[in-house]
Batch of 2 targets.
Target 1
Amino acid sequence: MDFSEAAERISRKFSKEGQPADKTKIEGKLKRLVQEFGVQPSEAERSVTNELAKEYNVPLPGAGPGTGKSSGGTEEKKIAEASPGEWVTFEGKVVALSAPASPAIAQSGILADESGAIRFVAWAKANAPAMTEGSWYRIESGVVDEYKGVANLKIHSGTTIKEISEDRTLIPTPIPVADLHPGIGGVRAKVVQEWEASHERMLQSGLLGDETGTIKFVIWKEPGREKLEVGGVYNIFYAQVDEFNGRLSLNLNGATVLQEEGDIPVSGGEAEFTGALVHVAPGSGIIKRCPVEGCNRALSRQNYCPVHEIQPKFVYDLRIKGWLDDGEKTHSILLQRDAVEALTGIDLAAAQEIAENNPLGMDEVFLQMRDKVLGRYVTCKGREIDNRLLVNTCEPKKFESAEHTNLLNRAGGAS
């Protein structure tokens, strides 16, 4: 884009209206929109033209009553109707605000109307008025772009924001888990599992499910954020639906989360594999967990938590990490306490007794459990998430004499 030539064109338009415009300032605005914010050159030129038209109170051709356009020359739409690459005017409610991810961002959050919701970002250089969570606004000349396949609303220097005094009712409708797609969505779902936090900033992660399927969720540590209750049923509105490696997940920071009474059946994501336990990984057996509320991380042998440091008042737990080979594929599996106790016959109290009184301590528990399960044929049932089977039940495969006889007969016939 030739910024000087574009600035000259814009300047001439307003000179004809008796409004001399500073070409240097115009050129600077164009460069900022294109080079810093990634706006298309033609849209940047239109944005600067609209901004000056408002400043000088000069009407633009084609704008005004009966044209289907806002005063800035952009089409007013419902949020669900907008597509990336469009300049739009929305009227919506700020249903959530989030901490800006960069100093270049003044404000970010979620804007919703009766048709849907969209994430918005207000650039710091736009000097836009700050919006308040729970209030309605008319946003004119915003730019809808796309990031990782998800539509976003960008508020820049040419955008006008006006608060709407009336409070309109919004009744979001949850959709089945199986129908979620990247963007903003809502579900009515049950907390099926809680997983060990994999990052120090993570408050909770786990699995949500309904009658149609399951989906991973995560809550990051922020003031006022609370963990969900395992087994609880929740209405969740305006959650961010992310996609990574073809799998969807729900980010609940900024979402409206309401717990309700009752229960719902959960299906989908169930997997069952029968095979030999060919490897029991280090870190299996009896382990120590951080007792700090919301942490639950496995501690080192020195009782060290990577977030909360030394924890002398640790909590014991059981788990087995390993590989299950079904003859065609090797599956990574994780058994929690209930499944470990049922498979090994060693409960937590017995494991703790061994760990505290045997010279080998926790290593002795690992060795005893490994000897009981390694090489054994088992049937594991659970949910396969991120290429790991989170085992709910794991039962030894019983010897079937009839099958053995058939194999021997087949071998004899082959010879």
Note: The helical segments are 3-16, 23-36, 41-56, 337-344, 348-357, 362-373, 401-414.
Target 2
Amino acid sequence: MTASHMLICDPVPVTEYAYDRTRNALLAVWSVGIGNVAETAVAFGEHLPDPEDALQLGYDLTHLSNRLWHTYTHPLTAAVDQPEEALRRARDQLAVGLVTEALREPNLPVGNQIRICESAVMESAHRVGRTLHRIADGRVTDQAVADVEAEVAAMRQAALGDLTGRANQAVVLTRLDPQPQQVAAAHAYFEQVPMGPPELYTKIDATSASVAAVHWFSSAIMIARRASEDDPSDAPPTRWPMPNPAHELGEELPMQAMRRLALGESPRDIVIGMVRNGVTARTLLEELVLGIDHAWQLYRENNKSVPSHQIDETFLARTTRMAVEGRDRIL
């Protein structure tokens, strides 16, 4: 297997490294859902042999970050029915713990040959190590190693459902396997603000937030439908009805979600199916939250019994009661 083949990976918006020419430093930059933050990863000082080396180091570190976070977005649990893919993911996960060693003692060329690792994570780490070897500055190496170790710690922290600190960048990623604790946290945020609070985009991974959003969106649509029928019940339906595309849904993704819900799929399975088919979790989340707003507008149009000054409060209260009562259906 060639080196070029091993280094191909899906684009993942992770930590990127930018060379600050003015300060002669490498900055680590990542998104936190509503913008980017930056920290100094490597301060080169006055003895960097060639600015091109700084740019190359930044490029290689960005690629390594991509591969590290790929183990988060593509967990082993999401490939149990794909033996070859599961083996590849297991190999990469094991390699995460060996990254530091590769940075300090990389595979170097011997004549015109070089050893290429089977693990994409490990090969990316060796690439960084070879650039550090060329720069040949122990202080630069120590700083780069420390930053990569911080990135690994952030990725592992996110995998446990804790998206604080540097792990906050996970909010912009599409993880193939939603995390139950993150889904529960998203549900709790919806209880506070049924129309979709900003914390969904800054504190919860988008895949897990989308699972909760499917549940709350379906409850909102059901309340709007019952308003048109003058039905005061807030109890979850025993079976979700097929959506009425002419009246109930304004976006294609929410319509797909409701159709699959009507066919008996859980919100979790719906979201997993969509992201595996290429839907970006952040896009799905945004459209589902817009769908809740659409359901609110329908409720206002269809309401036959609630006084106008109580419409909004009643819609939110009824949607919340239905969603909370039926929360055991989310997963």
Note: The chain is about 55% helix and 5% strand.
